[in-house]
């Protein structure tokens, strides 16, 4: 008898979003116009000069060979230049940077590289799934901590160290945060760095939304904290900053032992992104940056339209200071349903798809994540549909209760 209950696969619960996605596909197949605010998949094209660079590089047969697993030197230098100009942080492109196939791949493979079976990692809940599951796939165990960057977080770190045997090997940070849109400041990073240096704990900081912020202060990098690179590595990505999610280009920068570990493991796994993609990514980082400001301002416009339009529905949502997501508490009348049932109702009754917060962890179950990936008109249309749905909610709840008890 063949064993089909594979150890790693067994540790991965079914993907919560799959249920809503399947409903969405069925509704679309039946002809419904679904307004999709579910996935964080940027809907706008990559800036033209980057696409042109890709085409130019792809025309060169020399670029068709295997590339460099840790990234072409010019791209690693471009990342170092970005850190210098944006954060005033100097990293050595040779020993303190690596190019990854998107930041998700980098996070997952670094988890593989540093985790022994049974190792404990501190990961926020709710969080982007790979933050916890990267380590779970690698055979580790996760102790959940809150994601708000405040004293409660620091207390949870303290308890994590006191009550875990063996002591945690790493902590994951993600600011600006998906799904909560929370931001951290340098003071907070400084306290986490001090704590982790003292206790000998690695820090993996995910900064995929480094450029998607709406206030006057750009989010800081943890590498700005003096001494941070003794314990920390930071992931960044072109997916959101330059509308390049499908290109699969991200980076890690920071501690040279962590960069070295990721470099080693990746040298066994891949040959690097297609060279023309890396050449175009270099052009993105080194070229004109007004496209980044335009992308930021598009999300800000949509955010403002969303917050204003939702205010009219009776379901007010907090205005996110960064990222491409609003993290919305369930309307009180629906709180008892939890986020998955509420998301299904919203899809069925208002034709609006959102991501149920439970998909980001148990502490997300009183929220849904609403992505800013449709234009302003569609966002307003979504709010109108939701308003009609909410104004009718007694009947909707009654019907849904009846259907549930009939099953
Ligand atoms: C917090 C966070 N980290 C990483 C990623 C993955 O980005 P990439 O396309 O660089 O793999 C995402 C994508 O949605 C994200 O939200």
TrEMBL record:
<dbReference type="InterPro" id="IPR050881">
    <property type="entry name" value="LL-DAP_aminotransferase"/>
</dbReference>
<keyword id="KW-0032">Aminotransferase</keyword>
<comment type="similarity">
    <text>Belongs to the class-I pyridoxal-phosphate-dependent aminotransferase family.</text>
</comment>
<dbReference type="InterPro" id="IPR004838">
    <property type="entry name" value="NHTrfase_class1_PyrdxlP-BS"/>
</dbReference>
<dbReference type="InterPro" id="IPR004839">
    <property type="entry name" value="Aminotransferase_I/II_large"/>
</dbReference>
<dbReference type="InterPro" id="IPR015424">
    <property type="entry name" value="PyrdxlP-dep_Trfase"/>
</dbReference>
<dbReference type="InterPro" id="IPR015422">
    <property type="entry name" value="PyrdxlP-dep_Trfase_small"/>
</dbReference>
<protein>
    <recommendedName>
        <fullName>Aminotransferase</fullName>
        <ecNumber>2.6.1.-</ecNumber>
    </recommendedName>
</protein>
<dbReference type="InterPro" id="IPR015421">
    <property type="entry name" value="PyrdxlP-dep_Trfase_major"/>
</dbReference>
<keyword id="KW-0808">Transferase</keyword>
<dbReference type="GO" id="GO:0008483">
    <property type="term" value="F:transaminase activity"/>
</dbReference>
<feature type="domain" description="Aminotransferase class I/classII large">
    <location>
        <begin position="33"/>
        <end position="385"/>
    </location>
</feature>
<dbReference type="GO" id="GO:0030170">
    <property type="term" value="F:pyridoxal phosphate binding"/>
</dbReference>
<dbReference type="Pfam" id="PF00155">
    <property type="entry name" value="Aminotran_1_2"/>
</dbReference>
């Amino acid at each position: 008898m063949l064993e089909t209950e594979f150890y790693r696969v067994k540790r991965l619960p079914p993907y919560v979003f799959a249920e809503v996605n399947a409903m969405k596909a069925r509704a679309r197949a039946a002809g419904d116009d679904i307004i999709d605010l579910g996935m964080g998949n940027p809907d706008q094209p990559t800036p033209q000069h980057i696409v042109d660079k890709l085409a130019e590089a792809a025309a060169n047969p020399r670029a068709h060979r295997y590339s460099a697993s840790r990234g072409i030197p010019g791209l690693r230098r471009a990342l170092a230049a970005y850190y210098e100009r944006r954060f005033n942080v100097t990293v050595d492109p040779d020993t303190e940077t690596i190019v990854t196939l998107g930041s998700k791949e980098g996070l997952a493979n670094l988890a593989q590289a540093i985790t022994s079976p049974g190792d404990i990692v501190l990961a926020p809940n709710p969080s982007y799934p790979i933050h916890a599951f990267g380590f779970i796939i690698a055979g580790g165990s996760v102790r959940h901590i809150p994601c708000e960057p405040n004293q409660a977080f620091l207390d949870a770190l303290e308890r994590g160290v006191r009550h875990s045997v063996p002591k945690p090997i790493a902590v994951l940070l993600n600011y600006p945060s998906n799904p909560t849109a929370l931001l951290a400041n340098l003071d907070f990073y400084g306290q986490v760095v001090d704590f982790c240096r003292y206790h000998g704990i690695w820090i993996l900081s995910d900064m995929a939304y480094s450029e998607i912020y709406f206030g006057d202060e750009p989010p800081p990098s943890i590498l700005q904290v003096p001494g941070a690179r003794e314990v920390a590595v930071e992931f960044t990505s072109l997916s959101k900053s330059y509308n390049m999610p499908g290109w699969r280009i991200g980076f890690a920068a920071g501690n040279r032992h962590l960069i070295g570990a990721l470099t080693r493991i990746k040298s066994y796994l891949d040959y690097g992104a297609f060279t023309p993609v890396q050449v175009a990514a270099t052009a993105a980082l080194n070229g004109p940056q007004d496209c980044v400001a335009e992308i930021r301002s598009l999300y800000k416009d949509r955010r403002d339209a969303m917050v204003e339009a939702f205010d009219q529905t009776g379901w007010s949502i907090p205005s996110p200071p960064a990222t491409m997501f609003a993290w919305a508490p369930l309307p009180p009348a629906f709180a008892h349903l939890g986020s998955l049932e509420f998301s299904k109702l919203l899809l069925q009754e208002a034709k609006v798809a959102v991501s149920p917060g439970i998909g980001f962890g148990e502490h997300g179950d009183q929220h849904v994540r609403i992505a800013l990936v449709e234009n302003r008109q569609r966002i307003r249309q979504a709010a109108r549909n939701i308003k009609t749905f909410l104004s009718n909610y007694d009947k909707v709840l009654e019907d849904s209760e009846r259907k549930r008890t009939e099953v």
